[in-house]
Design brief:
Helices cover about 0% and strands about 45% of the residues. It is mostly beta strands and about 80 residues long. The chain is elongated.
Length: about 80
């Protein structure tokens, strides 16, 4: 089975969640990440590193987005 040992992000504005139980061969599961864009502007590139018992040991994925100003602020 695949065991996800840890999932790390490049900053505290991105919070990952991953399955803690082993994933059996032929089965799938999901890793999620929540990005809080508060206080951020412009191009953002948040790297997520997944550590596992796979042959490669670790792999990376990225959330890349462009944070733009809110054109309809609350209360207006």
């Amino acid at each position: 089975p695949l065991i996800l040992q840890n999932v790390q992000t490049t900053c505290g504005c991105t919070v990952p969640a991953w399955p803690k139980d082993p994933i059996a061969p032929g089965k799938s599961s999901e890793i999620t990440a929540t990005f809080n864009s508060s206080g951020k502007m412009g191009l953002q590139n948040k790297v997520i590193t997944v550590f596992s018992n796979a042959k490669s040991g670790q792999t990376q994925v990225a959330i890349i987005c462009n944070v733009t100003p809110n054109e309809n602020p609350a209360g207006q």
